[in-house]
Amino acid sequence: MIYMDERCAQLLCKLISAEKPIKISDLALMLGVSARTIRYDLDKIDEFLRHNQLPQLSRKPNAGIKFVGSSEQKNEVLTLISNINSYNYILTPRERQNAILIELLQAENYITIEYLTEILSVSRGTIINDLRKVKVWLTRYNLKLKSSPRYGIKIEGSEKDLRKAVVALLTDNMEIEKALKIIKTPLSRQINVVMDQQIKKLFEDLDIGVIEETIRMAERQMETVFSDGAYSELVIHIALAIKRIQIGRNINIPKDELASLKFTKEFAVASRIAQKLERHFSIKIPIDEIGYITVHLLGGKVTATNTWVKENWVKLQVVTAKIIESVQSKMGVDFSADNELYKGLMEHLGPTIYRLKHDLPLKNPILDEVKENYSQIFQVVKKSLRALEEFVGSKINDEEIGFITVHFGAALERNKAKNKAVCRILVVCGTGVGTTKLLSSRIKAEFNGVEIVGSVASHRVKEMLSKNKVDLIVSTVPIPGDNVPEVLVNPLLPREDIVRIRRLIERCLPAKDVTNKMNNKTVYLEEILKIIQKHCKIGCRSGLVNDLAKYLNIPSNKGLKGVVQPLLKDLLTEKTIKLNVDAKNWEEAVRIGGDILVKNGFVEPRYVDAMVRNVKEIGPYIVIAPGIAMPHARPEDGVKQVCMSLITLKKSVEFGHSKNNPVSVVVCFGAIDNSTHLKALSQLVELLGSMRIVDKIKNVRTVDKVLALIN
Amino acid sequence: MRIVTLCGMGFGTSLMMKMAIDELLRKHSIKAELQAWDLGSAKGQAADIIVAPRDMEKHLTGFNARVILIDNLTNKQEIENKLIPVVKELMR
User: Fold this and answer.
1) Running DSSP on this structure, what letter comes out for residue A603?
2) Domain enclosing residue B78, as ranges
3) pLDDT tens digits for A691-709?
4) Residue A44's closest CA among A87, A100, A3?
5) CB A524 within 8 A of CB A512
6) Are A127 and A120 in contact (CB under 8 A)?
7) Which of A329, A485, A500, A693 has the fewest CB atoms found within 10 Å of its own CB?
């Protein structure tokens, strides 16, 4: 049996549809994986091709990879790939759970576990395990998984929740526009094989074209154009509704809600859509379904054409900024860092302005709730809309104010949540008197978002932990036997200890907040580079990156592709390698290796002490392989730049490691963060992974020979 | 599934193991969350599997996770033989 996973299938599709050979590096870029992974995948593909008696991929060093078969053979491959189903495709647990959900969500009645084991070709135990996860997922949408011994399993819950779940399942895995595209494409041309097949199955035998026609008709009648997202969502919702009606599952809408919907213009349009669909699909669409379509027409936020928003982008930005400014000065809350508010409000205001200018009143179904729950914000917002009023030339009605209020309400909630996210610190020392007080006040002065839970002697830690929630212990003495992250510091809190604490605080604050910011910024720089590259020729890329990073005040070396990580040969040079060194014991060996780094100006002398201390405190685990030790310490212990040294010992020394003694090769290194040195480190591992090379390094007499091995 | 590689400081050994495991997971088409931690900040964190150098064993008390100890960190075969069966077992 030949196994291909999703990425291999995708890769093969790309190669087949390409006219020219594609380089491995480009393939890696396209799929967002490393070149090495691509090579693995290509081997798997070759195996797959061989198995099916098809020609192997051609791999030419400077040209790239190409599928050389005839067009018949190409078609054959495409059919093979589209036939890959769960029998010869290994589903990831998540894909399997999605498949189970799709089966369950479209089942008319009970399905059995046997049926699932058959279509997914996994064991009963696996399915039962998956069902646990499926159950959890379903509860998010108020749905239950009911199992009854004689019949099997089925989903229970309201029709509305069930439909929400189906759409969520689609959009969990991809954007809605893409989902619609997949539903429309014939199977053989698809790329993401298994998931697509599953999605397609949801809408089997349904003429999507007709549905799209009705939506376009609705657009004409409402004199508007939906955004792409809203359009796709409408099509999918209606397609789903038809499928459900066909198996006799109708939606229910509360009577009073339906009554209020009936008066909207959208209801009339929805009725006409329903008429058309009834004729074409020979079904009867109940009035509740028409209400449901109305809700989606309303929810699709009758937007002006995208072009209107695009043309008026700058004005829109100004109006948005003015409204936010006015609200924040009246409320005394700073929203300037809240990008979500800015973006959300701007997106909302585009259609709003269009509606106001064209006098298309929009009913706000939650206006009363908003007025009740956010009465103060509502009043403030009402007084803050001058910029908008001037722009559209009329007063703003309460319905629209209600929508805008919701944006600010959410921003206030976010603001509260942010202020709440503090790191609770317990400060500990031997006695719990003077030192901890000093430490506490230093910590408070140095960091934002921390709360000192208490400052106590070490024997009271257990008691404090049982009474309080503590995120981090900062202590001057080691504390055994608890479950809270701790950092051991010097009572005077030198700079390197502050760095260490900061890292831990960042970890215990909501991870999302910190990483999001990071990601946004990194992407940002990459985007800028892309734009520049599109229009200009870049002379010195690294210089540009550095200057941009400096100007924009973001780290240039974090996660940015194209910034050079030093290679092993950049770090291990004739200056940093010493052979046949005399060392009496392990400490001397570490110090000799460390001194090379100090002499070259790569680290401060205290870094060497830190390396020795590390071995003493945590143990000889730095002996990473038989005969090889890799001493190092933390960036804040005095590293000036990424560096490495290598020494071989005339006589090997004991580090006290349980298995890998004695040591005769010592590689010291210094890192500045946890990424820049990775390339060199992985090359080092490759090098030292070969016993043959290690033996050579131990025995050669000249540095040149070692350098030759590294290169 | 969350796999954590652990060492004293989080800059060398744990990253080496992380890189090796990253490669292994891809090779076996296993999707798992993979992180490198240092001892101090790993306390009290949740993980399904902890991979650490053999000589850190005595520091690894109090974790509610499967612990895998590696003798030779440059030996990918050793890591593969010890880790992958456990991953597969836990995924079942």
Assistant:
1) B
2) 2-91
3) 888 888 888 888 888 888 8
4) A3
5) no
6) yes
7) A329
Q: Best interface-test mutation with B: which of A621, A660, A684, A697 has the largest number of B CBs within 10 A?
A: A621
Catalytic option among A237, A407, A632, A657: A632
> Can you tell me the distance from the alpha carbon of A25 to that of A673, in angstroms, rounded to the nearest whole number?
26
Strand B66-70 vs strand B2-7: parallel, antiparallel, or unpaired?
unpaired
Nearest alpha-carbon partner for A408 in A369, A381, A372, A368: A381
What pTM does this model have?
A: 0.40
Q: pLDDT tens digits, residue range A366-408?
A: 788 788 888 888 999 999 998 888 888 888 888 889 889 888 9
Higher pLDDT, A354 or A162: A162
CB atoms within 10 A of CB A604: 16
- Tell me the residue length of chain B: 92
Contact yes or no for B13 and A622 at CB 8 A: yes
- The alpha carbon dihedral of A410, A414, A415, A417 has a sign of positive
The single-letter DSSP state of residue A630 is -
DSSP E strand stretches across A294-449: 423-429
Same domain, A389 and A268: no
Domain carrying residue A192: 93-201
Residues of B in contact with A628 (CB under 8 A): 74
- Say if residue A382 is in the same domain as residue A412: yes
User: Of A415 and A692, which is predicted with more confidence?
Assistant: A692
CATH of residue A347: 1.10.1790.10
